[in-house]
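Quick one - first record:
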Amino acid sequence: MDKTVIAQTVADEIRAAKDCMAAAMNNLTGAYGKAYGRCMSDLHYACYHLASALLASKGIAANSHEAVQKLLALHFVKPAALPRDTTAKLNDLMDKRHVADYRPYIQIGAEDLAGFRPWIVGFVRGVLKLLGKSAPAAEAIALRRAVDDFEKIRLE
């Protein structure tokens, strides 16, 4: 990937992550009540897009969720730029997304979100820190604000 493509891909992925985070917040605070399953799905995609942005910042393209996890482990977890539990947590989050999207008879509740919240907040902040100036400022600020709000929201 050339530098222009890298910069555009990072910007697109950060924007997508911000949009997913906003949707997650709407599913927790919207006028129609709390939709925990939809929120969990949106949070998964926010993290997926952030992971994709981080890979793209190094010129690495992944074509599946599994490839994103494997490449993230190889290029960021193994060298200790991200915590050791990153890929396991992303996998757990993807499993919850599958439940939310395809198994409506299995309830996802506030306790499920509460269990993931500290990791998601740390992951978003950690990736934004690693991206530094390669993340578009306005989108990064909006994403930081959304994750700060997510950290503070009452889940019950």
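second record:
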Amino acid sequence: MGNWEPPKENSLEALNHGMSFSDGVEFDLRMDSDGELVIYHDEFVPGEGKLTERLIELLGTDELRKKGIMALEDLFGNRDFISNWQSGGKTVDIEIKGPHPKAKIGLVDHFASMMAKLDMMVEDLGVPDKSVIVSSFSPKIIPVVKS
């Protein structure tokens, strides 16, 4: 038997592993230039060049997938992940991330779009209500949550 290698952070393999062998998972959510929700912590993809050319919110879904960044629809389309979540006893903590200031995107409207899309996607899954936590460290999300 070989040594177990942990899967790449935020990969489908890692999130499935977390749902199978722990109480759930946490991941960060951003919205790309196509309006799709993507799972990624950092504000920009690694590489060379200007930050503005590597900002998640200014790149399209296909380009991000080529760089190994998963769209939320890919995760939510994975039967193993969803069945673990639907069976209960598992929690998914989704942290809403705001764009880098260089993206020049209005935060309140951006957060409202993210929350509306996320709400619709989660509602369609049929997971237990108390198994979803949506959080953000940005105070700009407060008016969105209130609305």
